Amino acid sequence: MIRAFFAIPVSHQDGMRIRSLLSPITEVLGQSVRWVPMSHWHLTLDFLGNLPQNSIEKIQTLLTPMMREIAPFTLEIQKIAGFPGKHARILVAHVVSNSSLDFLFTQLNEINAAVGIPQETRSWKPHITLAKFHAPHPAYQPVALHDFSLQARELVLFESRPDAEGSHYVVLKKILF
């Protein structure tokens, strides 16, 4: 079984831009958070769960033709705050949904349906996980952003392999927009 998910990775350059905004929060939170390594920052589009190898192969076959319609697009970051609220257990960059992101999400759901993966029933709230809180954590002020955006240039099908430090991500398929 392969634990897999679809994501848009955050480029190193965009990650450095996000990191530069975190100092007011890091000063307050100190050791009460475990920061996700910047190399792991991504916007999860769909967590597929544990799948057999043949399902992964079907997904990879269906993925390329469906993604030809997608061009690079902009992801607007609204704020850096807890998820889903101020007293949540994770700190995220909240992403504003847009037509390109919604189209991509819909296309991935169609691939899932074709492979027999159940549809997600919860509402999707696009975000990039930056840190996980150790309970309890001090109060902090969320960072509101204006005109802050990232470029979505690729979709990646990742395998997530849990290890002692969290998870190790392995690229199974990458498609450039």
Short précis:
The chain has helices at 12-19, 23-29, 53-67, 99-115; strands at 2-9, 33-35, 42-51, 73-83, 90-96, 127-133, 143-144, 149-152, 154-163, 166-176.
CATH superfamily: Cyclic phosphodiesterase
Number of structurally distinct domains? 1
The coarse overall form would be: globular
Task: Supply the number of helical segments.
Answer: 4
Average the pLDDT over all residues and give the rounded result.
89
- Per CATH, what is the topology? Cyclic Phosphodiesterase, Chain: A
Largest sheet: 6 strands, antiparallel
Examine the secondary-structure arrangement and name the CATH architecture.
Answer: Alpha-Beta Complex
Counting DSSP E segments of at least 2 residues, the number of strands comes to 10
Radius of gyration: 17 Å
Strand content: 35-45%
Succession of helices and strands: EHHEEHEEHEEEEE
Descriptive report:
The protein has 177 residues and is an alpha+beta fold. The protein has a single domain, classed as Alpha-Beta Complex (Cyclic Phosphodiesterase, Chain: A), CATH 3.90.1140.10. The chain has four helices and ten strands; from the N terminus they run E-H-H-E-E-H-E-E-H-E-E-E-E-E. The strands form two sheets. Strands 2, 4, 5, 6, 7 and 8 form a six-stranded antiparallel sheet that branches. A four-stranded antiparallel sheet has the order 3-1-9-10. It starts with a strand and ends with a strand. The model has no long low-confidence stretch (mean pLDDT 89).
